[in-house]
Design a protein that fits this description.
single chain, Rossmann fold, four-stranded mixed beta sheet, alpha/beta, 18% strand, 349 residues, 11 helices, seven-stranded mixed beta sheet, Four Helix Bundle (Hemerythrin (Met), subunit A)
């Protein structure tokens, strides 16, 4: 299994996703500031992986503190959390992981835990999140495999695989689960411009697993759907609102509209931590605007004329009416999502 990130005695080690697929190299973040930089620069990306990365960053900051007591460390803990929270605004798993660490720290403060106990507990919880994420992805894969065709082509957009998680993947976990059951799946992977996560990362992952894969330019899906060459679509998510609206990599909305028009099921696979019940609709999801250079340049070469205007929103929002089902580790959700989300939450309690 691809090691997207891992805790080491020296710091947090990440596979450098900006160098894939031609170079498999690793980055060691030896401070929480470096973990934040790794997230911003997309050395690590994907909502679940970002969340666990932030938790490990907090654990690393606690380990390296110069404070001598928990009380002395408290303002620094807040500073660490704030820096990591500012890295990527759309991926709700980031805030879920940070909030979980904050709750743990508050409990430790309340029982007057020593600084050594705080350091140990924060690291233990970060490592628990890592294991939980892999287990959740495998469970999603088991649930989602039932929804995949026994034989046919499945389209995916961006990368929601092992590289976007701690291992196995969400959307690609569903595909892996289907293949493990003997289903004959051929994957169409959108390039996913401008950062090309599909062409660079999804294709690399799936080829490493021996899953038949074809890369498509982002504007090819409509024609292939019309020709009956796509049987299903499965994507990941960075945030799911309480009504089932889904924020995912830019271009996902267009794919969903096309799937609806052609009668093709459109599935979203995401862990429960991606669901943001406090955000009522997709209109309230913050959309990250990334640097213009990701559009103006590729591979160090300028593609656009000097001075031209650039828009680079990293995500778009797909309204719930286009989503056939949401696959989580707790089970499969169907519309109306506000009701199915609430029901599943009550069952879990």
């Amino acid at each position: 299994m691809i090691l997207t990130l891992e805790w080491t005695p020296e710091g947090v080690r990440f596979i450098d996703q900006t160098k894939l697929p031609l170079e498999e190299s690793y980055v060691l973040a030896t401070s929480y500031q470096q973990v934040a930089d790794v997230i911003v620069t997309m050395v690590v990306r994907g909502a679940p992986a970002i969340g666990v990365s932030a938790a490990m960053g907090i654990a690393l900051g606690a380990k390296q503190t110069k404070a001598s007591t928990t009380e002395e460390f408290a303002p620094e803990f807040e500073q660490i959390c704030n820096l990591l929270a500012g890295t990527r605004p759309t991926a709700v798993n980031l805030f879920w992981a940070i909030d979980r660490m904050k709750v743990l720290f508050s409990k430790l403060q309340a029982r007057e835990a020593t600084l050594a106990e705080v350091q140990e507990a924060l690291l233990a919880d970060a490592l628990a999140m890592y294991d939980e994420d892999i287990a959740a992805c495998k469970q999603m894969g088991a649930y989602g495999a039932d929804l995949m065709p026994d034989e046919g082509t499945v389209l995916t957009h961006c990368n929601a695989g092992a590289l976007a998680t701690c291992g196995y993947g969400t959307a690609l976990g569903v595909i892996r689960g289907a293949v493990e059951r003997g289903k004959r799946i051929h994957v169409f992977a959108d390039e996913t411009r401008p950062f090309l996560q599909g062409a660079r990362l999804t294709a690399w992952e799936l080829m490493a697993d021996g899953i038949e894969t074809t890369v498509l330019c982002d504007n090819m899906a409509a024609s292939l759907m019309r020709q009956g060459q796509i049987q299903a679509v499965v994507v990941g998510a960075d945030r799911i609102a309480a009504n089932g609206d889904v924020a995912n990599k830019i271009g996902t909305y267009g794919v969903a509209v096309l799937a609806k028009e052609h009668g093709i099921p459109f599935y979203v696979a995401a862990p429960w931590s991606t669901i943001d019940r406090a955000t009522l609709t997709g209109d309230a999801i913050p959309i990250e605007e990334r640097a213009a250079i990701e559009v103006t340049h590729h591979g160090g070469k300028q593609l656009t004329p000097n001075g031209v205007g650039i828009r680079n929103p990293a995500f778009d929002v797909t309204p719930a009416k286009y989503v056939t089902a949401i696959i989580t580790e707790r089970g499969i959700l169907k519309a109306p999502y506000s009701e199915s989300l609430q029901a599943m939450e009550l069952i879990a309690q």
